[in-house]
Amino acid sequence: MSAVLPLFGVRDRSPLELAPGAVHVPGWLTLDQQYELVEACRSWAIGPVPIRHTRLPNGGVMSVQTVCIGWHWQPYKYTRTADDVNGAQVAEFPANMIELGRRALVDAYQDPTAGDGYTPDAALINFYGEQAKLGMHQDKDEKSDAPVVSLSIGDTCVFRFGNTENRNKPYTDTELASGDLFVFGGPSRFAYHGVPKVYPGTGDPATGLAGGRLNITMRVTGLTAAPAQTDERRARGAS
Ligand SMILES: O=C(O)CCC(=O)C(=O)O
Ligand SMILES: [Fe+2]
To answer: Fe2OG dioxygenase domain: from which residue to which, for each copy (predicted)?
Structure first.
């Protein structure tokens, strides 16, 4: 009997360019990194601003659940406090995530300088249950054209990556699996994209996620923090 080739389950980790500036790196995160991120997300999901189904101005509710760090996102702006949830300030954006974002750009663009000066200051953390989807949209509430770094953990999904003109064709459907990195920057920074489907039960529980899909998108908001009001300014009623 011939030996079984040890290729089963091994994915090609070379970066794949879907469009200029849009790069998919399969299996970029190690299992340990995924586990650590799941733990961190679990704690952010509890508070200071709990994870929620975002309410849209048209009265709809997103099927995806979202919690933010650094800046709070609500349709369609970033704010320091989560006024549409509990009014609290979201958790700080940790320095090790900035580092991870920089390494993501270096590896995706295969350029040792690609991460220089990249300082993401917000992340949206999305949790997809079995039925959750995300419609085609652009990430355009940032006042910066710095790349978006996306990390996926848990169940595999169909990721639809479109054009910069509208939410329709042409688009490319690709699968994002646990540990995958996807970067969209440059001419693809404002491309439409969405998640039409998640495949339940495809994730590895060793990530710490028993079910569902976690996606973290790091962004540069281009916003500066409003200076904290001093007691004196507050007493004077300065706005
Ligand atoms: O879940 C994903 O892969 C994409 C998430 C996304 O597009 C977003 O949060 O804006
Ligand atoms: Fe997005």
So the answer is: 119-222
